[in-house]
């Protein structure tokens, strides 16, 4: 992998500017579900993982995950070429934490949906209305888990 193209100070500032919540994908999902009449709470601190949306009426939570930060196996994710050990530790610990939090939510009787960033942007994106349709169908069902990801599958490097 080539060396970073920006200085460490610039990279640090860029990484610090990445939002943890109220991202464009999250806002798109919130808006689409709200227009359909769903009411929810945001980032409920009393639940494992502080889900992005909490729909208590449906005993359901929705996470809108960024593919990079959560190590998703899609075309948007690529391991960084600098500080490789740091990033492998960081991302693999995020993935492990996500698994633990999902299990804790399911054990507590919550239903869990994960909408991946790649479903909303990139080559294999799905229209927001179609994602909202899938969420609506899931919320009105008794299924425990929903995962929405891009149409494309990753080709081996």
Name the poorly predicted regions: none
Number of strands: 5
The helix count comes to: 4
Report on the biggest sheet: 5 strands, mixed
Structural class of the secondary elements?
A: alpha/beta
- Whole-number mean pLDDT: 87
- The radius of gyration over CA amounts to 17 Å
Helix content: 25-40%
Question: Assembly type of the shown chains?
Answer: single chain
Strand order of the largest sheet: 1-2-3-4-5
The ordered H/E elements are: HHEEEHEHE
Strand-residue proportion:
5-15%
The N- to C-terminal Cα distance equals: 13 Å
Query: Tell me, what's the shape?
Result: globular
Identify the notable features of this structure and list them briefly.
globular, alpha/beta, 5 strands, 157 residues
Structure description:
- It is a single chain.
- This protein has 4 helices and 5 strands.
- By secondary structure, it is α/β, with parallel strands linked by helices.
- A 5-stranded mixed β-sheet has the order 1-2-3-4-5, sandwiched between helices.
- Strand 2 and strand 3 (60-65) form a beta hairpin.
- Helix 2 crosses helix 4 (128-139).
- The longest helix has 24 residues, at 84-107.
- It is globular, with a radius of gyration of 17 Å.
- The model has no long low-confidence stretch (mean pLDDT 87).
Short structural description:
The chain is α/β, with parallel strands linked by helices and 157 residues long. It has helices at residues 8-16, 24-35, 84-107, 128-139, and strands at 41-42, 53-55, 60-65, 111-116, 145-148.
